[in-house]
Amino acid sequence: MTMASIRTIAFWAAALLFSSCSQQQVESEPEVYSFQVPANFPQPVFDTHNPMSHQGIELGRKLFYDVRLSANNKVSCASCHQPQLAFTDGMQLSKAGVSGTALLRHAPAIFNLAWVNNGLFWDGGSTNLESQVFGPLTAHDEMAQNLYELVDELNAVPAFVSAFQNAFQEPVSSQNVAKALAQFQRSLVSAGSKYDRYRLNQTGGALTSDELAGLMLVRQKCQGCHTGELFTDQGYHNNGIDADFSNTEHEGLYTGRYRISYDLADLGKFKTPSLRNVALTAPYMHDGRFTSLEDVLDHYSAAVKPSATLDARLPASGLNLSAQEKKQIILFLHTLTDLGFTQNPDHHKPQNF
């Protein structure tokens, strides 16, 4: 064998080795994401065929902030879910959607969704994050996107084609758009508030006497529904903001959980939001009718409207809170603000993508 032949063989061997390594790098398994459960939180239950990976979460973050997900390429998920507001938008009823029409429900906060195991949306109309994605993505007044066109748009961006391969070892698809967005949202854990430092006996966790009094009041008056370290029971309750649920317009959106269950006992029941970061997520209730925490406490104190499905833990006459008690509750609720969560750069819009 001549030296030229040896050099030729060596060249092609090296080329094949490089090609094999490159192929292996592209097709390597996604890096498994180790979900860290906060010390004072319960264990989440992942009932999903969508294991989290670093690549999947990062792809989901990019998609969350990308306006290509909307029909007019002007609306992203972040248009209604802004990280500095605990992924709410500060609006009563958003008009940020493609149609410019005010939505009929207030944009809920997005955090600690890894623990949600009893439905999403205000009425529990979606069973998991993966299916939930398709609601706003295709709704006429929200993102109004055609899923086939979305796949074409993403396929036109080489960085997205590579990102889907790295995250799922599959081409771009609407199913994997949903999976990636779900992984990103499931990774959004808020557990670093002053209250958490208090619970874990950490530096900076000392509560004032008024904050402690507020904590006791919340435990006595509110934790029938806003329970545990998550400050929500993930359930559905009629909290007395309305007494008449006969309005069946807009596919029964005003009837609450009944819209999904068709059980008359569910009329006027809406999902319990977490009290975590509540000082950042005004306005309040499923329709954003209360502009401040003071308004919320005024309602629970003396403006409860009795009805057949009013939650049994809520007196029809209200909680009769004193001005001092309202002040203490609000002071405590501010200790549930997690600025480390809202300011985390890993939750914000990626740069240079």
Any descriptors?
mainly alpha; two-stranded antiparallel ribbon; MauG/Cytc_peroxidase; Cytochrome c551 peroxidase; disordered N terminus; Cytochrome Bc1 Complex, Chain D, domain 2; 14 helices; about 350 residues; signal; metal-binding; about 0% strand
Secondary structure elements and pairings:
Elements lengths: L2 H25 L26 H11 L64 H4 L1 H5 L8 H9 L2 H11 L5 H13 L7 H6 L9 H13 L14 E2 L11 H4 L5 H4 L8 E2 L21 H10 L20 H12 L4 H4 L11
Antiparallel strand pairs: 1-2
Question: Could you please describe the fold and organization of this structure?
Answer:
It is a single chain. The model is unreliable at 1-26 (pLDDT under 50). This protein is an all-alpha fold. Helices cover 37% and strands 1% of the residues. The termini are far apart. It has a two-stranded antiparallel ribbon with strand order 1-2. It has helices at 3-27, 54-64, 129-132, 134-138, 147-155, 158-168, 174-186, 194-199, 209-221, 249-252, 258-261, 293-302, 323-334, 339-342; strands spanning 236-237, 270-271. The chain has two domains: 54-190, Cytochrome Bc1 Complex, Chain D, domain 2 (Orthogonal Bundle), CATH 1.10.760; 194-337, Cytochrome Bc1 Complex, Chain D, domain 2, CATH 1.10.760.10.
